[in-house]
Amino acid sequence: MSNFEILMIGAFAGVAGTGLGGVFAYFFKNPNPKFFSGIMGITAGLMLSVVMFDLLPHSFEISGMPVGVIGVIIGAFLISLFDSHIEKTKFNKGFIREGLLLGIAIALHNFPEGLAVGSGFMVSSSLGIDIALVIALHDFPEGVAVAVPLSAGGVSPCKVLLYTFLTGLPTALGTFIGILSGGISNTFIGLNLALAGGAMLYVTCGEIIPEARDIYRGKISILGMILGVIGGIIITRYL
Q1: Which of 16, 41, 160, 173 could pair covalently with 25 via S-S, beta carbons 3.0-4.6 A apart?
Q2: Which of 232, 171, 203 is nearest to 18 (CA)?
Q3: What pLDDT digit, counting tens, does each position of 62-115 carry?
């Protein structure tokens, strides 16, 4: 298989995965507060599962606990800097801000996923394809997570779809670097996974969960969060 074909597979895995999640925006118009609170809760649960049962365990396994913990701290700090910058721009509007922050966090996450695809193909075509399929499945709920707040913030479905596609592009860059390197350092890959985990934790705990509770004060967001965690466990464990 040529390097160009490998690059296209890596790009498709990231862009199609998050992009399909973005299609959700077409069906998410003028929701009532109770429904929206539940969706936000599910989104938060999915993100927590991806971080706690996928990103961080892999980071700790391949680069060690100290590197992983440092990566989480740095990732949370970096996204807080983005957050401070967004507060000073025209995009400082509740849901839009959340969507942008989560998009940045997921883009950071997609880069090391691309490294995994490229490095996998350097070992064997079957391994590379298996990794690409798993990544595409994992990226779907992340695309939903970006699409939901942007759509609720008034961004048009077409633009939401475009933004979710863009969050998948770093997968292509990571795949390209993985091909060139023939296998990036485990420490580097683990650090990137932890950086993405820290960024996603910041957005989920600091933005999405409080927003879900503010939208509707009932228990629907809590139930949604539990369902999201269960769904995330199933995705990370069996897909």
Answers
A1: 160
A2: 171
A3: 889 999 999 999 989 988 887 777 666 555 556 666 677 777 777 776 777 777
**H-helix or E-strand spanning residue 195:** helix 186-203
Regions of the chain with pLDDT less than 50? none
Distance of CA 55 to the CA centre of its chain: 10
Helices 220-238 and 125-152 cross at an angle (nearest 10°) of 170
Query: From CA 13, how far away is CA 169, in angstroms rounded?
Result: 10
Total domains in the fold of the chain: 1
Contact 43, 165 (CB under 8 A): no
Residue-number span of the structural domain to which 81 is assigned: 3-28+37-238
3-state secondary structure 129-180: HHHHHHHHHHHHHHHHHHHHHHHHCCCCHHHHHHHHHHHCHHHHHHHHHHHH
